[in-house]
Amino acid sequence: MGIHFEEEIFKDILIRLPVRSLLRFSCVSKSWETSISYPYFKTKYLSHAKNDFNSQKLLVCQRQFAEDSNSNVYSMFSFYSSSLSTIQLIEGVRKHDCPSNCKPFGMAKIYSSCDVLVLLGIVSESDKQLLLWNPSTRESIVLPHSELLHHTTYGLAYDATSDDYKILKLGKSVEILTLKSGSWRTIREIPTSVCPRTGYEMEIRPCLDVDFAIDPVVFVHGAFHWLGRSHNYYVVSFSISSEMHGGISLPERMYKIDNMQSFDYGISVLGGMLCFYSTHNNQQGWGAFKLWVMKDYGVKESWTELFKIRDADLYLAKLIYKYADNEVLLRCRYKESGRDVFRTSKGPFGLWLQCSFQNRVVYTESFISPKLLF
């Protein structure tokens, strides 16, 4: 005799299964396929996944160089993901097929993520593409783009007011794409000058370290944010719903440090809070990383130093994720090895991949199709 469950119990079991298992189970019967593909179930599954640590994945893009039969050197890229709980274990790494509408040659950039969706830029000798991709289901769509430039960065976010996903482009101009409209609009009278190593640089020469050159626009409190500069550094905000921009001040103590030879600044979001971080190297060669969080959004006085790391070999560091115990995951590059190492404020725990990777985002495993959004 078969075992029968009430429909709600059945769905409650399904939302706890991995995406790959659900995709297989949708082939079991027509009723299972209908239940799994129903919009309400997909929304409920995503809501559960957002609060499930095991559904949070780190995605990286790795660039490698190869040589053809004529000794011509060309670059290739690959995508890898790992659970954030097993990030230090090489056997926990999963390689992803490239999106079906792009080839693994040339340059690839992971710009941003929003829940299950990842925004990619793909540049080859013959084509330039901006893609919206779900790594869990391997579905992707090609987005319209005005021009993919080296010093251009993007942000992706969901606007609950209009029930639409929006993409912000930050380059020589500021443009916004709403998926429902399918077209870009230019936003007037908004700052585009961005600090070194974070995006388009209007007055500052381009950073020579391509892997760290452009950080994504970050999204928090219903607005895109990036680091701007006039006489001093500050954070530019752009509301996704009202399309109004503003500024958040940074105390000078956060970015003015004496006797430092090189530096890197950036912003991120950890635990729903806006963050500012810096990496400095002094004349003796010591590297120092500092992280501040804005505990009360928009209140300058609430900037608080969370922790500091001093390491003689540290060259650059980028924020990735904040765990439930308040430990922060960082991607670090060291001067001696030139390789990428993951570490927390407690210390390094080794290599993940055997060579440097270009960029990374954290996304949530779910099976919402980008093809149904555009």
Number of helices: 4
Shape: globular
What strand line-up does the widest sheet have?
Answer: 3-2-1-24
Strand content: 35-45%
Q: How many angstroms does the end-to-end distance come to?
A: 45 Å
| Helix proportion range | under 10%
- Mind describing the biggest β-sheet? 4 strands, antiparallel
| Alpha carbon gyration radius | 21 Å
Structural class: mainly beta
Which runs of at least 5 residues are low in confidence (pLDDT < 50)? 196-213
Following the backbone from N to C, one meets helices and strands in this order, namely: HHHHEEEEEEEEEEEEEEEEEEEEEEEE
> Which oligomeric form is depicted?
single chain
Give the strand tally.
24
What's the pLDDT, averaged over the residues?
77
What do you see in this structure?
It comes from Nicotiana tabacum (Common tobacco). This is F-box protein CPR1-like. By secondary structure, the protein is mainly beta. The protein is 9% helix and 45% strand. It has four helices and 24 strands. Strands 3-2-1-24 form a four-stranded antiparallel β-sheet. Strands 4-5-6-7 form a four-stranded antiparallel β-sheet, with no helix packed on it. It has a four-stranded antiparallel β-sheet with strand order 8-9-10-11, with no helix packed on it. The radius of gyration is 21 Å and the shape is globular. The N and C termini lie far apart (45 Å). The relative contact order is 0.14. About 5% of the residues have low confidence.
